[in-house]
Design a protein that fits this description.
homodimer, Arc Repressor Mutant, subunit A, 21% strand, globular, binds zinc ion, DNA-binding, zinc ion binding (chains A, B), WH-like_DNA-bd_sf (chains A, B)
Chain lengths: 135, 135
DNA sequence: CTGTTTATGTTATGTTGTAACACAGATAGC
DNA sequence: GCTATCTGTGTTACAACATAACATAAACAG
């Protein structure tokens, strides 16, 4: 478990967030379900409902290209600007960062088109430094 | 049907690409399957195998946040730099563009981290100009 | 204390994507 | 010609991801 104690999570939300924090990396909803069976979880909806709230709170991010979820890398995070993720295809490591400059340029484009931007998905696939070195 | 005639597609590849071109927007694999049943398609693998090749050729893009596929908006396209997509959540319209400037900044970040970038997923969700006006 | 909201539990179902195996056609080498 | 190999195809079965529908319970405002 860790951080984010300032928000009162429900029991299920706390269990799901704890799983993701402990994992230190992305987990699928069904992987979380298996981790939490000993805590009484029985059905995928228990996980998905908690994840929906945690994503809404900004404490968890969804990785669209992995169909997985990851705890925000910021301590005591209650939400921040558009995040991006560098995903290593060798080792599965995920690094979160906040490319405000690139997002600004994307936002410029949407504004020039009259498109009202609500949220962004930016996921970079490749090979991390460690895996490049070892492979 | 349309364009891309310079590449020799197999029968199934041509049928799948034709469906996507005719649709003028994103389709899920199963939607394509239903469209092609009258052409003899019976199983999802027939669609997925064709889509894999079309994506490899750069003629079709996968939209991760929709679990859907869309024909490249460029005529006679055999592949191009990193594409991005603005997806209207009201009407479902998808606009493809190529934000070289923003991708350059993202690439700068990956290089500073020793991350070998292979490909990008950039999907912007929001409301298109027409839907903003009418809503 | 009653109507409303939020969270939860449970069953069943819907949607998206692959594994495994069999077969057909092209084609390159002998 | 006749194999070996590669690519594309067809089919069944299954795995993985996500939600609908309905019931119950706790929290809380009027
Ligand atoms: Zn974050
Ligand atoms: Zn790695
Ligand atoms: Zn394109
Ligand atoms: Zn629209």
């Amino acid at each position: 478990m860790s951080a984010h104690a300032h928000r009162e999570l429900t029991k299920n939300q706390a269990l799901v967030f704890g799983s993701l924090s402990d994992a230190g990396g992305p987990l699928t909803a069904y992987a979380i379900l298996d981790l939490l069976r000993e805590d009484g979880f029985r059905a995928p909806l228990q996980v998905y409902r908690a994840l929906d709230k945690l994503v809404e709170f900004g404490m968890v991010h969804r990785l669209e290209s992995l169909n997985a979820f990851v705890a925000c890398s910021h301590k005591d995070c209650t939400g921040h600007g558009s995040a991006a993720f560098a995903i290593c295809e060798k080792c599965g490591d995920v690094r979160e960062f906040t490319p405000d400059d690139a997002v600004g340029l994307l936002k410029n484009w949407t504004e020039s088109q009259g498109f009202a931007l609500a949220r962004t998905t930016i996921e970079l696939r490749g090979t991390c430094k460690g895996c490049v070195a070892s492979g």
